Amino acid sequence: MSVTAVPIQPTPRRMIGVLWAGLAVLVIAAIAFAWLGTSAAVAQTGTNEQFLAWNARQPGVQTTASGLQYKVLKEGTGAHPTDTDVALIKYKGTLRDGTVFDQNERAPLPVAQVVPGFSEGLKLMQKGGKYRLWIKPELGYGDRDTGGAIPPNSVLVFDVDLLEFIPMAVLQQMQMQQMMGGQGGGAPGAPAGR
């Protein structure tokens, strides 16, 4: 029995160069993906400063002069609330790890009577807007123990929808009118009873 030998053609040098270049690209991509995955993991489990530094580089995240970080999820329209307003909002508050510590579908909040970072975030918004806020501890509760689900020195993460806002004076006037109406005084402009 005879075996026929089939000669194997040599691989051209150009093809070897292409193979090495492709291998180099794959190694570089693997290192980049590993570094990105590691930086996210370090940011999530690292210090507040590491997390906020990493978060500031994420697409769409903006940082104010005070250090409040926010992302516009949906633009609103019209004017912005001020310290003299009461904002009607829908919100969900979480810690960095996603633990929900508070949420509400319709909460009236005086803009000037919430933690500084939340107040600053509300004043950036417009009616109908939705923002995500990252509030560093110094703009939140700091090192205070709130006695609840928020540990001291926590970064607070809020998703906030600004439903409406009105001046505090108008709200107080409306409340006064309701109280007067509930005491038999009738609504303003209503005919007097006989």
From TrEMBL:
Pfam families: FKBP_C (PF00254), FKBP_N (PF01346)
UniProtKB keywords: Isomerase, Rotamase
Enzyme Commission code: 5.2.1.8
Catalytic reaction annotation: [protein]-peptidylproline (omega=180) = [protein]-peptidylproline (omega=0)
GO molecular function, one term: peptidyl-prolyl cis-trans isomerase activity
BP GO annotations: protein folding
Family: Belongs to the FKBP-type PPIase family.
Protein name as catalogued: Peptidyl-prolyl cis-trans isomerase
